[in-house]
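Quick one before lunch.
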Amino acid sequence: MEPTEATLCHPVVDGELLCIRKQRGLGAGKLVGPGGKVEGGETVREAARREVREELRVEPVGVEKRGEFDFHFRDGTVDDDSMHVYVFAAEGIEGEPETTEEAVPEWHPTGAVPYDEMWIDDRVWLPHLIAGETFRGEFVLSDDGESLVRYEMEIGVAVE
Ligand SMILES: Nc1[nH]c(=O)nc2c1ncn2[C@H]1C[C@H](O)[C@@H](COP(=O)(O)OP(=O)(O)OP(=O)(O)O)O1
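Model of the 6U4 complex:
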């Protein structure tokens, strides 16, 4: 089965990270980056911008691709639910983030991100996004998504 392709795009503006409190779908209740599935006929960059627009009603500016991750959910017995995620950072936004059906905006200082309210893998890779680095990696989460079974990550990779 081909992995689902999805995006994440975190604006980092004046030392603050823009996140969303996800209202529905995968990871509902968690603090995440704006993002979602790539649709047919759009590039991943277009998908990243569209999701920020749809979820927060702002236009991201200075959007930079930082890397790619494979996320797998499994407990070692089943092999399903793989997601290939293209990760972007944005150096600004145009407009004021709004609450939508999908998302409630939250700004957090980059030095005090509440990682315990995020996906378990975010504490591993998000500090590198905040530091301006590029990356590529693979994360295996338990089926309930609550623990990290294993991961591999390379920092400072070439990103097209
Ligand atoms: N382990 C993980 N860590 C993380 O930080 N983000 C993850 C993640 N696993 C999935 N995601 C993100 C990537 C992507 O933005 C989103 C995909 O979840 P969904 O399919 O529920 O998306 P949405 O419901 O927002 O998609 P659309 O229906 O396309 O809007 O979840």
